[in-house]
Amino acid sequence: QxxxxxxxxxxxxxGGSLRLSCVASGRIFSIGAMGWYRQxxxxxxxxxxxxxxxxxxNYVDSVKGRFTIxxxxxxxxxxLQMNSLKPEDTAVYYCNARIGxxxxxxxxxxxxxxxxxxVTVSS
Length: 123
Prior knowledge:
Elements: E1 2-7, E2 10-12, E3 18-26, E4 30-39, E5 46-51, E6 57-59, E7 67-72, E8 77-82, E9 91-103, E10 106-113, E11 117-121
Parallel strand pairs: 2-11
Antiparallel strand pairs: 1-3, 3-8, 4-5, 4-9, 5-6, 7-8, 9-10, 9-11
């Protein structure tokens, strides 16, 4: 089985910083695109940042210039550095990854989610 485990959430004051990390473990043959999503109370889950296996990134407009997504392919990790945090960034943040698993002689790709980590920005 494959697991994504997030860490790094917490309570921070406006203007502060947090770094989220997500580690993928299990029977992994390859990892494709990885991303961070968030869901605030009463709102739909939204894509925050996305990074391809080749390192290309994109961000939702509201976090551009403040958040940075990165990955370490050797460690099967994806990180989200969040700076200049605002109260509207408060949400549960979820790690997402497309992971290839070897089945006999075919690699089959599946989408996995982490359990979520709470980020609260408040004074």
